[in-house]
Design a protein that fits this description.
By secondary structure, the protein is mostly helical. The chain contains twelve helices and no strands. Helix 7 runs antiparallel to helix 10. The longest helix is centred in the N-terminal third of the chain and has 46 residues. It is flat and about 75 Å long.
Length: 267
């Protein structure tokens, strides 16, 4: 009887797994079909003159531009943008977590800092671009600081909010066993906010990329942001659209790397 019950459960689980895999395949296939249909429609409208290919470009011209870039300096520009993004992302995350821990540790410092954090978070960071360039100089340092300024405040606010909303009952229980603040932080607060930490990373990777591209618009002589600005200045819309598509692919790959890291860590 028990064996038959186990076989029924096993068969039910197999059916569930098959349905789950089929559902994932259907979603992926639909997404691919949407992209292909969009590309074909775009090419068709450009070829028939329904849209101005000079302004909107078209997939065939973008492909030619990509192949031309690939045989020239595309890897150099990709390396510059990715290096700046990773440095800004890692720096912003580490500093943000450290500051969030300090603010959680001291409620006095947290209350004093709160209005300043709100103002800095609402301030358009691109307005600080000229100031940052004067402070740290043109080039990569200014771009990294720009990326850091955009991601840092978000990291602090997100992580601190997660720390402050940790289960109070768990903290009280630890305190009844004479746990000190450091033990409470390392044994309860941080482990309870792993999901918050990875969600912050997912947001930060995009914000860091935004900061890098913004910085490259202002001061860079290389990178995907530089290609976009250069293409706009010389009216090469093919170059602009190609750079934007490459940028979108880079952003998606960086985001997926965080998702894979989260799955591996949680598992």
């Amino acid at each position: 009887m028990k064996k038959k019950k186990d076989e029924i459960l096993s068969e039910g689980r197999k059916q569930y797994l098959r349905k789950t895999k089929l559902r994932k395949f259907e979603i992926l296939a639909t997404q691919i079909c949407i992209v292909i249909a969009f590309i074909l429609l775009w090419e068709f409208l450009a070829n028939t003159g329904k849209i101005d290919s000079f302004i909107t470009s078209q997939p065939s011209r973008i492909l030619k531009t990509f192949l031309n870039l690939s045989s020239n300096d595309l890897l150099m520009h990709l390396k510059i943008t990715c290096t700046e993004t990773i440095i800004g992302f890692v720096s912003g995350t580490i500093l943000g977590v450290i500051i969030a821990i300090i603010l959680w540790w001291s409620s006095f410092i947290s209350k004093v800092s709160e209005p300043f954090l709100v103002v800095l978070n609402s301030l358009p960071k691109i307005a600080l671009g000229p100031v940052i360039i004067i402070w740290v100089g043109a080039g990569m340092p200014a771009i990294i600081v720009m990326a850091l300024s955009i991601s840092l405040i978000v990291t602090i606010l997100e992580i601190l909010n997660g720390f402050l909303h940790t289960d109070k009952e768990k903290i009280k229980m630890a305190q009844t066993f004479n746990a000190n603040k450091f033990q409470t932080l390392t044994k309860i607060v941080i482990p309870s906010n792993i999901a918050t930490f990875f969600n912050t990373l997912k947001v930060n990777i995009g914000l860091s990329l935004v900061g890098v591209i913004t910085g490259e618009f202002l001061v860079s002589k290389g990178g995907l942001g530089y290609l976009i600005v250069y293409g706009g200045q010389v009216f090469q819309l093919d170059l602009v659209m190609t750079s934007v598509i490459i940028l979108a692919i880079v952003a998606a790959l960086m985001y997926e790397s965080i998702v894979l890291l989260e799955k591996r860590f949680v598992k």
